[in-house]
Amino acid sequence: MAATPRFRKNAVDGNAVEGSAGEGGAAGEPDRKHPVDETLPPLRMFTSGLQHVAAMYAGVVAPPMIVGPAVGLSAKETAFLMGASLFTAGIATLLQTLGFWRIGARLPFVNGVSFAGVTPMIAIGKDRGHDGIAVIFGAIIVAGLLGFVLAPYFCKLVRFFPPVVTGTVITLIGVSLLPVAFNWSQGGNATADDYGSMTNITMAAVTLLIVLALRKLLRGFLQQIAILLGLVIGTLIAIPAGITDFGALGDADVVGFPTPFHFGAPQFEIAAIISMCIVMLVCMTESTADMLALGKIVGRPADERTIEGGLRADTLGSAISPLFNGFMCSAFAQNIGLVAMTKVRSRFVVAAGGAILVLLGLVPVAASVIALVPLPVLGGAGIVLFGSVAASGIQTLATAALEKGENALIVAAAVGVGLIPIAAPDFYHAFPEDLLVVLDSGISTGCVVAIVLNLAFNHWGRTPDAEPETEAADSEQPKDPMALPVAH
Description:
Elements: H1 21-24, H2 42-71, H3 75-97, E1 111-113, H4 118-125, H5 129-154, H6 163-186, H7 198-217, H8 220-224, H9 226-241, H10 247-251, H11 270-298, H12 304-320, E2 329-331, H13 334-342, H14 347-362, H15 364-370, H16 375-397, H17 407-418, H18 420-423, H19 433-439, H20 442-458, H21 470-475
Antiparallel strand pairs: 1-2
Helix pairs in contact: 2-3, 2-4, 2-14, 3-12, 3-14, 5-11, 5-12, 6-11, 6-16, 6-17, 6-20, 7-9, 7-16, 11-12, 13-16, 14-15, 17-20
């Protein structure tokens, strides 16, 4: 009897190989698992999930670390916000990866606190203490519910994302994240005396070299967790260098639960609600682009239904988050780079990371262990992670028929506009603050420019047979830019 068709064992390493006719019958059987839906052995599941947590940890705790003091919270209350953000990021990630009904992209998609809302939240709650936080939470709840209602309509924008658009946006995601890695490499705090010191930058460079060496020398599972091993080794080296802070470990509580509405019942103010609804639309745009990018990397292109489910998980997670004192949740693009680099495509690995985030939110002392990783160490690893996202975008652009029509011009204009917030951060300083929510996101502005120009050059006023051959290009899946031969 012929065996059931399946992906062979090395699918776990991200190199899914179909069983041949002699090994398992014809391809395309309905019960064959895609690598996205495969489970790994428990130890691999945990360590790979922990690697995702390590890559996103700083990004999750940074917004509450900034917003807390700005609205007048004490250090202890700010720490509480950070724990709550870890907890709610875990819930949102579980919604995305495991899903239920028509909620969740069911891709290895990580959710966490969105940076897009930091400036508006500070403006809403500045120096208002608990009342400021309550107003912020009320606005996020309304924005999340509005986004949930809009998700079935917003997802239809996917048809406006051919390779010339998706490649541009994926490239911008990677390039936009690189300054974050450079900031971490310098120390993360521009006001600190050692910011940009030779020690910090050397530590980042050492970590980068360690990660590259591990990727080159290791094979199989150890190669997959090269980032995690690099962070551990980098942290150990950083101890004698004097840039590892153990203070948080000693001050952390062993157990803590983010008490619902710890700062009081949510308050609803029209101006705050409008501001956060704009942020929600920005987050939905970026999440759509991230899902398209991730879908290509894992070999399961994101269709309208996938994006609808992903947006519903984003927005539902955001609406629930304030109940546990968390902020708006959105996609974490840096983890897309980790998927591209490690080639581990299982969504259950990221679900394990979500479970770890929930645990960290409930056990602050465990969260403080992750916090031991110095930012320069994280920055060195981040250069590889974020650069791999940009490389994926470039490979997508290679399928976009840039020699046809004005496609190269579309990419040039969209990338140029998208790089403005990175190359010239004060470029829009004279614009109204409400517009800065969109303009300060190079991903959003570049995405809008790419979509509009693609419509203008490739659709409006053209007959069907005159349009560029984007459908054929769309079917070509970009290869993993970090792919290395698998040892057999």
